[in-house]
Amino acid sequence: MSTPHRFILTLGSNTQAEHHIAYVQKRLFSFGGCRLRCSTPRRSAPVEFPLSSTPFTDVVIVGDTHDELTLFSRKLKELEQEAGRTPEQRATRPEEIPIDIDLITWDEQILKPRDLSRPYLRLGLTELGVELPQVP
Ligand SMILES: Nc1ncnc2c1ncn2[C@@H]1O[C@H](COP(=O)(O)OP(=O)(O)OP(=O)(O)O)[C@@H](O)[C@H]1O
Ligand SMILES: Nc1nc2c(c(=O)[nH]1)N=C(CO)CN2
């Protein structure tokens, strides 16, 4: 079998966070051929989010999968919608984030450079003993 791809992702929620994060974690664990390790959920003030001052809860997940990037990204987008982040919800209540799934890295690629300095990501990675890929 091919070498698996290694990823780091974050789950963030500012609305019924415990419920939405638990739901998405359970669904992620049911993805075939995907190994995961999760940080403890952490609450913190919103970063770069002018729409609301409600705290976010975030979980950092590291894992590997035999899926290719396009398929894995599509599964995450579908899961986001299944968990309540539908186009309708985004349009009508943009200040509510039931769940935001952000794929931060894929093997050595940084997909979301903007998120790298966020404290919730740093703290979760430290807890998991994982370093970010080095930018050349
Ligand atoms: N500066 C901002 N001003 C207004 N809304 C923002 C701002 N930053 C984030 N948002 C809102 O937060 C949501 C989550 O941001 P994020 O960058 O994760 O985008 P996304 O829509 O989930 O797309 P992606 O697929 O890139 O993750 C956005 O959809 C937007 O509604
Ligand atoms: N603390 C924190 N701040 C954020 C987060 C997040 O998950 N946690 N997500 C955002 C976009 O969805 C914007 N700001």
Automatic annotation (TrEMBL):
InterPro entries in alphabetical order: Hppk, Hppk_sf
All residue ranges annotated as the 7,8-dihydro-6-hydroxymethylpterin-pyrophosphokinase domain in the record: 9-127
Keywords: ATP-binding, Folate biosynthesis, Kinase, Nucleotide-binding, Transferase
Pfam families: HPPK
Top-level taxon: Bacteria
GO molecular function, one term: 2-amino-4-hydroxy-6-hydroxymethyldihydropteridine diphosphokinase activity
EC numbers on record: 2.7.6.3
GO biological process entries: folic acid biosynthetic process; tetrahydrofolate biosynthetic process
Pathway(s) this gene product operates in, as recorded in its UniProt entry: Cofactor biosynthesis; tetrahydrofolate biosynthesis; 2-amino-4-hydroxy-6-hydroxymethyl-7,8-dihydropteridine diphosphate from 7,8-dihydroneopterin triphosphate: step 4/4
Name this polypeptide is given: 2-amino-4-hydroxy-6-hydroxymethyldihydropteridine diphosphokinase
Species whose genome carries this gene: Porphyromonas catoniae ATCC 51270
